[in-house]
């Protein structure tokens, strides 16, 4: 990816708009000359709109790499549960949503790391972080069926969410990157509700808590 594209993508992550990368606004003023003059004086320069974000500190870098590692394992879990028969429709729907959200988060974090001049760490090199499934538990999910697989999946996702939520709350006090803080805020806002959904679905699938 070119430096220009990285810069534009990071700007999109930060403000939700492709600031400085395109200018789709139509000319609706009565005078095109006046409009051009106003735009020349009001619009930031190309150098300003494509400025690279300040590099994050070590807390930001560690957070970005850790979340990417969690999401890499989550991706395997989502794919496993979505491919199985006998899984409740609500579980499949939530898995599909989480897969999409976390995929975008991973891409955004990789863009930030590259924009900071950091080499994104190999998620597999992180090992088994707090809340991750062990290789044995992951294998149980792969070979499990129906409700049994659903319970393993939801227990695993609950543990992932609890761990990544704690990391997001921490980096908001220890990090320095506003772009990464915006993404951490999204996690802090969204994941408590996702945890509630996961716990409710788990209670329905495993009311005794025998396999939780």
UniProtKB/TrEMBL annotation:
InterPro entries reported in the protein's UniProt record: DUF305_CopM-like (IPR005183), Ferritin-like (IPR012347)
Region feature (Disordered): 24-58
Name under which the protein is recorded: DUF305 domain-containing protein
PROSITE patterns xref list: PROKAR_LIPOPROTEIN
All residue ranges annotated as the DUF305 domain in the record: 60-202
Superkingdom field: Bacteria
Taxonomic lineage of the native organism: Bacteria, Bacillati, Actinomycetota, Actinomycetes, Micrococcales
Low complexity composition bias: residue spans: 24-55
Pfam families: DUF305
């Amino acid at each position: 990816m070119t430096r220009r594209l990285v810069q534009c993508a990071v700007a999109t992550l930060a403000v939700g708009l492709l600031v400085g990368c395109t200018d789709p606004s139509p000319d609706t003023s009565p005078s095109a000359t006046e409009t051009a003059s106003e735009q020349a004086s009001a619009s930031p320069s190309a150098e300003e709109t494509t400025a690279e974000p300040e590099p994050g500190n070590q807390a930001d870098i560690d957070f970005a790499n850790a979340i990417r590692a969690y999401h890499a394992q989550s991706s395997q879990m989502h794919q496993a549960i979505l491919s199985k028969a006998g899984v409740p429709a609500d579980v499949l729907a939530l898995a599909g949503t989480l897969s999409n959200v976390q995929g975008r988060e991973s891409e955004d974090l990789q863009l930030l790391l590259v924009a900071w001049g950091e080499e994104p760490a190999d998620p597999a090199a992180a090992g088994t972080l707090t809340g991750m499934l062990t290789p044995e538990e992951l294998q149980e999910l792969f070979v499990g069926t129906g409700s049994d697989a659903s319970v393993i999946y939801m227990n695993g996702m609950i543990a992932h969410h609890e761990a990544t939520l704690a990391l997001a709350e921490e980096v908001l006090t220890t990090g320095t990157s506003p772009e990464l803080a915006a993404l951490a805020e999204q996690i802090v806002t969204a994941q408590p509700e996702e945890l509630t959904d996961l716990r409710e679905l788990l209670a329905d699938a495993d009311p005794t808590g025998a396999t939780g």
